[in-house]
Write a structure and sequence with these properties.
This protein has 128 residues and is mainly α. It is built from three helices and no strands. α1 runs antiparallel to α2 and α1 runs parallel beside α3.
Length: 128
């Protein structure tokens, strides 16, 4: 039997509100942990790809190495920057957390694009 409006006390409302807030916090914490886990995996994979591309460029001809060595150096520097921002992410909440996530996603996309360009140029060089 459902309690009537008269039977619901302020304590009941407070308790239910607290339970709802606790549940929301737990869900947010879980989502943040999942995002950080995926981000860590993405960073590791991108780091591995950058390292492999750098090694491949070192073996390539001088012209291609000269053309993309600055790109690879920049990618390494950006990787360090992104790792630092990812570490800061753990301390952020709410809107600041969301803004940092969006910035990280954009930075990762830009890095991936630059890496794919370098890998494409290397592949073209190898085909010649």
């Amino acid at each position: 039997m459902e309690p009537t409006d008269e039977e619901i006390s302020m304590d009941d409302v407070k308790r239910e509100t607290k339970e709802a807030l606790d549940a929301a916090r737990e869900l947010t914490r879980h989502k943040k942990q999942e995002y950080q886990k995926r981000l860590s995996q993405q960073l590791s994979e991108l780091d591995r790809e950058i390292q492999q591309a750098s090694e491949d460029l070192d073996k390539a001809g001088e012209s291609i190495e000269e053309q993309y060595s600055a790109t690879m150096t920049e990618l390494g520097e950006r990787m360090e920057e992104v790792r630092g921002r990812a570490a800061e992410l753990q301390e952020k909440s709410g809107e600041a957390w969301q803004e940092t996530c969006e910035g990280l996603s954009k930075a990762l996309q830009e890095m991936e694009t630059a890496l794919q360009e370098a890998k494409g140029a290397l592949k073209q060089q190898e085909e010649r």
